[in-house]
Amino acid sequence: MSLFAAAERENEERARPLAARMRPRTLGEFVGQTHLLGPGTILSRLIKADRLGSLLLFGPPGTGKTTLARLLAQETRRSFVELSAILHGVKELREVLGAARDRLAAAGEGTLLFIDEIHRFNRAQQDALLADVEQGVVTLVGATTSNPFFAVNPALVSRSQLLEFQQLSVDDLTALMQRALADRERGLGRMHITYDEEALVGLAETCDGDARKALSVLEAAALSEPEPVHLTRETIHNATLYRAQRYDVTGEEHYDCASALIKSIRGSDADAAIYWLARMLEGGEDVRFLCRRIVISASEDIGNADPQALPLAVSCFQACEQIGLPECQFALAQTVLYLATAPKSNAATLAIGASRQDVRSQSVLPVPRHLQDSHYAGAKKLGHGAGYQYSHNESDGVAAQDYLGVDREYYHPVDRGFEQQIAERLKVLRGKLKSTNGEC
User: Fold this and answer.
1) What phi, psi does 24 have (nearest 5°)?
2) 36, 255, 353, 431: which one has the fewest Cβ atoms less than 10 Å from its Cβ?
3) Where is pLDDT greater, at 407 or 438?
């Protein structure tokens, strides 16, 4: 290679983003995911035994899925072929699979086919992979930020090992940035850069475990200042644009955050509940979805322990419909905090569940004759309504008569909030009503 060609290649390399330049070249340089690559793990054993099968890598962006796929091909001496489900279709896929068959037949060389964003392939495109994956023509490594059980063909899932990637820790990200600052060949080591340790830690804490994001902001901060550069919290903050939240309003993140919000309300943790509300709002969640979940929680988890919870939740729904974002966030916050700190009872939830189970599993109870409708012509001739006692004629407003025909109890108030008073009154009511069972 001539000096001119070498210099041109070096310039091209230096022009690539820092995150691309700092990709690990070996598994030894790979940072994070020790639960997958640590000593004795299933993946490390498969690599060592050269028994690597098809994999589905799923997890947050910037955690090393693409990098690991490249390193796996290198470690297992397979040809590496990369496709993007966003850019390529069935035509390109069939060409790659045909070339893999030829390569295997002619030289006995295997192919590691890496498909990024595999969840974006439709069912027909995913089905086109099945035969060659099944026969071992290619070792498929698919990467996705979505849960494969939601987004990938079940037939493909069943033929693959699922590996979940986790967010990189603050220590992992800090170590990666320090490596980039020291590396003279691929990183920023040729520049005159000093830094405050707390500045790198602060950046790592805001990057959601995303190495690509951390290195991109670090590079922007280093290149935005004249040399010599000293990186502080302020210089890094100035290089950071608005931080987009990782949130998929139609995928797993949507359901996980909704679950965390409701469980935090149920668990009476107001601080956690308001955080998950903020997380969903920042991610662009549908306000009507939030309102529906809040109304459900008011009855499901609070019920009559605080009878004001449901009217407040319904009022919040109406206010959000009338006001919209951003102002309706205040009504949402007020309601979520009220529900989180309210006394809890699922007695109403258990009561309707038990009674419906009886309706489904046991003989349907006939309506007692004295409770049957007597307002239509001929009803009295049939005896409908005979013996019914009008409750308002009683001094305490309770007529001692049977309303079900059998002795069953579904509602068991808890000893919290307003249900304490309900439980006391219910004891008196049941005492009076049960004294009449079987008499009417």
Assistant:
1) -60, 140
2) 431
3) 407
64 exposed, middle or buried (CB, 10 Å; 0-12, 13-18, 19+)? buried
What is the three-class DSSP state of 402? coil
State the pTM of this model. Answer: 0.60
pLDDT single digits (tens) 78-87: 999 999 888 8
CA atoms within a 13 Å half-sphere pointing along the CA-CB vector of 403: 13
Instruction: Name all domains of the chain by residue range, CATH numbers in brackets.
Output: 33-164 (3.40.50.300), 170-238 (1.10.8.60), 252-341 (1.20.272.10), 347-434 (1.10.3710.10)
Is residue 152 a contact partner of residue 118, using CB atoms and an 8 Å limit?
A: yes
The values of phi and psi at residue 161, to 5°, are -85, 130
Reported residue count of the chain is: 440
Q: Stretch 96-110: mean pLDDT, rounded?
A: 90
As given in the structure block, the two tokens for residue 147 are 């849960």
Supply 227's token pair: 């040399």
Ordered DSSP codes for 244-291: -----TTSHHHHHHHHHHHHHHHTT-HHHHHHHHHHHHHTT--HHHHH
Backbone torsions φ then ψ of 58, nearest 5 degrees:
-135, 145
Radius of gyration of the chain (CA): 32
Tokens of 354: 């038990």
Q: State the first-to-last Cα distance of the chain, in angstroms, to the nearest integer.
A: 105
Q: What is the per-residue pLDDT across 200-245, written as a single tens digit (0 to 9) for each?
A: 999 998 888 899 989 999 998 888 888 898 999 888 888 775 444 5
* Assigned token pair, 363: 């003989």
Which residues, listed in sequence order, are joined to residue 282 by a DSSP beta bridge? none
Q: Cα–Cα distance between 112 and 107 in angstroms, integer? A: 15
Residue pair 344/416 in contact (Cβ under 8 Å)? The answer is: yes
d(CA 268, CA 262): 10
Cα–Cα distance between 203 and 232 in angstroms, integer? 10
Give the model's confidence band at 428: pLDDT under 50 very low, under 70 low, under 90 confident, else very high: confident
